[in-house]
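Help: why these numbers?

___
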Amino acid sequence: MKQLVEVIAKALVDNPDEVVVTETQKDKAIIVNLKVASSDIGKVIGKSGRIAKSIRAVVSAAASNTDKKVIVEIDN
């Protein structure tokens, strides 16, 4: 999941070198933290959060064959 979020985020932002993705596991959940440059946060979230929702939808679809829930958090 970490690599999937990283590829999507690097394609969206102007500063792909500043994209940092970390992954932690808690019980039956995988938490993916995405950090981008402050100038790129709007590009990752999108208008009314549409891009963020789309990223979460793609990640949850990729995780559908596992028994774990994936949570994507976006930080700046």
Q: What stands out?
A: The two ends are 19 Å apart (CA to CA). The longest helix spans residues 50-62.
